[in-house]
Specification:
Blueprint: E1 2-3, H1 14-21, H2 36-55, E2 64-67, H3 70-85, E3 91-95, H4 100-111, E4 115-119, H5 129-135, E5 140-144, H6 158-172, E6 179-183, H7 195-198, E7 202-206, E8 217-221, H8 247-285, E9 289-291, E10 302-307, H9 312-321, E11 324-325, H10 341-345, H11 350-354, E12 356-360, H12 367-387
Parallel strand pairs: 1-11, 3-4, 3-5, 5-6, 6-7
Antiparallel strand pairs: 2-8, 7-8, 9-10, 10-12
Helix pairs in contact: 1-8, 2-8, 3-4, 5-6, 8-12, 9-12
The structure holds pyridoxal-5'-phosphate.
Length: 393
């Protein structure tokens, strides 16, 4: 199999699995207890916290809170700020192209009486800092913009928005402060993520997108940022997130993110070259194809192409039969009849949004695998077009 769905999930790397093993067998102690084994488990969790903090240049490890998934971290940031600060303002600014975790968290708040501005994007999936500036109101409490889009790979101007909010907050003062959250789940391990340089208050990460285990994530919350807990329980995570720690998962995420940081520069340079070559080849070899997302400000390992007149699922099934795993912005893959909300927000008509293919590279992706893909893809597209009632050419 050639795996080209690394934006969907990544393989657990051997080093992370090895680090996890002892905490899934002999070292099963609860880190909150006081016997010796417990201290050892707690030390392992704290070491992982330091690794995650270092990966995003957080000033202090205790600004990192482990969660049960990336989705939980995202939900916590948005709902936690809304619940904590909703008394002084009920306006939240986000974008139309967020991951469903953010989008639906915001929509759930809308039902509870919050006023949500979903900023539209341009044709490249980009939302601009001026749009955020124009949307700000006296009752705005939160701005939530993802760092890099999981479908089309577009990288948002987070540092620019952060600088704008810092300037505004200096005038508005603490009682009217606007918090800034970014879902950096697709960015970490691919492009530099530095919470200070970005000017964010909150930032979400997921373990399984960086070769760590599934079911573990982390929320960075800058010192002094108050948000209401979503999970009440024991005093874990400094009283902010109840639930006995997923020690093995946390340790695995720490090991994985540390390695991802060490490998990032070389990997992203290699990905960028392979990405640009693959895009150019596909667009020249296959007529009626177009690139989705920004041509340059995009994740190094993301290729998203629409093939007109055909359905993404068809492409995926035929690719699968040839040994390639990929994903699409099309209907059935997401379990709904609507095509990708991201592609629609970018202005693609429904039939074009249905014909999209996302190829996302991983650390083990080889140029030779992409060459093999290029041998089968034109044939797959022609076969589907020959059967398509939309195609006359
Ligand atoms: C994968 C992903 C999530 C969800 O993370 P999980 O750990 O799978 O819950 C949220 N946002 C983005 C951008 C993602 O890519």
């Amino acid at each position: 199999m050639v795996y080209l769905d690394n934006a969907g999930t990544t393989a657990l790397r051997a080093e992370a699995l090895n680090a996890m093993m002892e905490f899934m067998s002999e070292n099963y102690a609860n880190p909150s207890s006081i016997y010796r084994g417990a201290g050892y488990a707690k030390a392992a969790v704290d070491a992982a916290r330091e690794k995650v903090a270092a990966a995003i240049s957080a000033a202090r490890p205790n600004e990192i809170f482990f969660t049960g998934s990336g989705s939980e971290a995202v939900n916590w940031a948005i709902k936690g700020i809304a619940l904590e600060h909703g008394g002084r303002g009920r306006h939240i600014i986000t974008t139309a192209v967020e991951h469903h975790a953010s989008l639906y968290a915001a929509k759930s708040l809308e039902k509870q009486g919050f006023d949500i501005t979903f900023l539209p994007c341009d044709e490249f999936g980009m939302v601009h800092a001026e749009q955020v500036a124009d949307a700000i109101r006296p009752d705005t409490i939160l701005v939530s913009v993802m760092m890099a889009n999981n479908e089309v790979g577009t990288i948002m101007p987070i540092a620019e928005i952060g600088a704008l909010l810092a300037e505004l907050n200096a005038q508005r003062g603490n009682e009217k402060r606007i918090y800034f959250f970014t879902d950096a789940i697709q960015a970490v391990g691919h492009i530099p993520v530095d919470v200070t340089a970005l000017g964010v208050d909150l930032l979400a990460i997921s373990g399984h997108k960086v070769y760590g285990p599934k079911g573990v994530g982390a929320l960075y919350a800058k010192r002094g940022v108050k948000m209401t807990p979503l999970i009440h329980g024991g005093g874990q995570e400094r009283g902010r997130r109840g639930g006995t720690e997923n020690v093995a998962g946390i340790v695995g995420m720490g090991a994985a993110i540390e390695l991802a940081m060490a490998e990032m520069d070389a990997l992203s340079e290699n990905h960028r070259k392979m990405r640009d070559a693959l895009i150019a080849e596909i667009l020249t070899k296959i007529p009626h194809s177009r690139l989705n997302g920004h041509p340059t400000r995009r994740l190094p390992g993301n290729v998203n192409i629409t093939f007109e007149f055909i359905e993404g699922e068809g492409i995926l099934l035929l690719l699968d039969s040839k040994g390639f795993s990929a994903s699409s912005g099309s209907a059935c893959t997401s379990g709904s009849l609507d095509p990708s909300h991201v592609l629609l927000a970018m202005g693609l008509p429904h039939e074009m949004a249905h014909g999209s293919l996302r190829l996302s590279f991983g650390k083990d992706t080889q140029k030779s695998e992409l060459d093999k893909l290029l041998e089968v893809l034109p044939e797959i597209v022609s076969r589907l077009r020959a059967m398509s009632p939309l195609y006359s050419g």
